[in-house]
Amino acid sequence: MATQSIKADDVIKSIADALQYVSYYHPTDFLLAIKQAYKSETHAPARNALLQLLINSKLCAHAHRPICQDTGVTHVFFRMGMDARIQDTGHTGGTRSLQALANQAVAEAYTCAANPLRASMIHGPLGSRINTGNNTPAIVHTELVEGNTLEVLVAAKGGGGDVKARYAMLNPSDSISDWIVNQLPGMGAGWCPPGVLGVGIGGSPEQAMFMAKRSLFAPINMHELRQHEPKNNVDSLRLELFERINALGIGAQGLGGLTTVLDIKIEQAPSHAALLPVAIVPNCAATRFTSFLLTGSGPATFTPPDPALWDDVPDALPMQNGKSVNLNTLTQAQVASWRAGDALMLSGTLLTARDAAHKRLADLLEKNLPLPVDLRNRAIYYTGPVDPVGNEAVGPAGPTTATRMDKFMPALLEKTGLLATIGKAERGATAIAAIKHAKSAYLTAVGGAAYLISKAVRSARVVAFDDLGMEAIYEFEVHNMPVIVAVDALGGTVHRTLPIIPEN
Q1: Residues near 450 by Cβ (< 8 Å), separated by ≥ 6?
Q2: Which residues contact 206 (CB under 8 A, 6 or more apart)?
Q3: Could you give the C-alpha distances from 210 to 178, 203, 343, in angstroms and in order?
């Protein structure tokens, strides 16, 4: 086979364009699966969450703005033909590695002026934990294969899905299905279901995890599989897991309902006779990936989905989505009247804070030092927004997983007069006990509906810890921001993945 040259600049441009493309376009098969889940859903909170995901998808596709504020860590899977060569004539230091080309593409895509993406990568994980500023480096996997082309799969994987990854070394006689199903309640809803669950079986421990993640990028075809008899053990296990997991009733955003997983994907590999490695990795409601083939004829091009896919999706939530709440006049008595499951529309002044800001606030409280912001009778929203463009007050600003802030809740509620917190997914026992003791409330917004939520933000400014970038404390002025009461002042909860909290 003849050797084929592929320009380094074509690799960079193709990956950068792919990252921009997937930031605002859902894969068509994923969108159709969400639409089917919405049509079949009968549980009102889950149905409302699915509608928000669909509206958000439509808005992002139209505006070319990110589906989720967590614009992901870039994963690039290269399958490079042995007879393909990278031509890097414009680079004086010699031919750059595939890692270097991917890093350059990520930097260009995430700092694009027209659609900036949030930088979430940090270096020095055991020390300084400083944001790299441009979301580099990419996570690169390279496979050398026969041929003279370069096949590339690009994915932007959010932290909410990866943090819920699970691995076990089972005994060969153990039930894979039982182990996987038993993991789901403990995974909670921080991975923003419904989504696809990837499963890796066999190989070595690291192979199993790799296969679980890679399997996520196969087409969704569970609807077809369910119409026919399974052809092999993989099909049988996919069907069994699909039925058993959805029967758990976790549902969209953990709010209950019919659909927790849209599909189950499985890859397997030969392994040692004494081993049965099993790994699972979920894909969230902000599913983002695409693939392309470079043959030496230029960079890849990406065709937008058919706009008709969103014709039956409304442009906005109905105004009767919930009871109106004025955050500027919020009282403890008002908060105490809310009950788990109530839908609210928030208007007024809202503060934001995530992990790093919470740590600083906790340190100040421990030292009896004044806080940079007054939290009395206020609400905190757990978000790290994307930078705004044009006339936006803020870029996509969806919720982050609340449980990471649980350990800070007792001190914040007891010492500051904070009335409410807003995030995504369930809370743990420590936070629920603190909320009940303080007679406050925890509200959830829909993870994966970041651009829709940002439409409720009329103004935004940094008020503390500006050195933290997207983790700084912002002050938002919001109008009709949709949320659900997830934990009320009595300790009542709406999520289906929670431990029972004993009375005290």
Answers
A1: 56, 66, 67, 68, 69, 70, 286, 386, 396, 397, 398
A2: none
A3: 21, 10, 40
Rounded Cα distance between 324 and 345, Å, is 5
DSSP 366: H
- pLDDT tens-place string over residues 128-143: 888 899 999 999 999 9
Give φ, ψ of 352 to 5 degrees: -120, 150
Alpha-carbon distance values, 487 to 332, 378, 492 (Å): 14, 17, 5
For 177, 253, 381, 443, 491, the CA distances from 497, given in Å and listed in that order, are 19, 10, 22, 16, 15
Residue pointed to by tokens 């399997």: 215
**477 burial class (0-12, 13-18, 19+ CB within 10 angstroms)?**
middle
DSSP 338: -
Q: How far apart are CA 428 and CA 498, in angstroms?
A: 7
Give the H or E element holding residue 475. strand 473-487
Which tokens go with 487? 């934990």
Kind and range of the H or E run holding 212: helix 205-215
The token duo for 251 is 């549902």
Cα 493 from Cα 436, distance rounded (Å): 11
Span 49-94, pLDDT tens digits: 999 999 999 999 999 999 999 999 999 999 999 999 999 987 777 8
Beta-bridge mates of residue 251 = none
pLDDT bucket at 497, cuts 50 / 70 / 90: low
Give CA–CA dist 484/41, Å, rounded. Answer: 18
The CATH fold of domain 319-487: fumarase (3.20.130)
**Class of the 1-26+67-158+287-294+309-315 domain?**
alpha beta
Domain boundary assignment for the chain: 1-26+67-158+287-294+309-315, 160-285, 319-487
* Residue 290 and residue 462 in contact, taking contact as beta carbons nearer than 8 Å: no
Q: Residue 443 has which token pair? A: 């509200």
Sign of the Cα torsion 211, 214, 216, 221 reads negative
Beta-bridge mates of residue 481: 346
User: Helix, strand or coil for residue 13?
Assistant: helix
Residue type, 374: D
**Residues, the chain, total?**
504
Q: Write the CB contacts of 402 (distance below 8 Å, at least 6 apart in sequence).
A: 382, 421, 423, 424, 425, 426, 427, 431, 442, 444
From the list 288, 289, 270, 266, the residue with the least C-alpha distance to 279 is 266
**Is residue 499 over pLDDT 80?**
no
Whether this model's pTM surpasses 0.85:
yes
